[in-house]
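pasting for ref
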Amino acid sequence: MNQVVITALKRPYTFVVLSIFIVIFGVRSVLKTPTDVFPNINIPVVAIVWSYLALCRKICQVVWFIIMNVP
């Protein structure tokens, strides 16, 4: 670590140029990086078919309303 400090004090322009290169290439990489990293995928859809013959229509509508309003 000491050697880095001594070299930086002996050649300050080298470290200024290196820091400018780091900034330039950092900004360039941020601008060139694609924003959408993840591929397009099909989100799975679940369909539930439920048939219960002994259930009256009113209760079935209440159950359907509860199921459809679940966040």
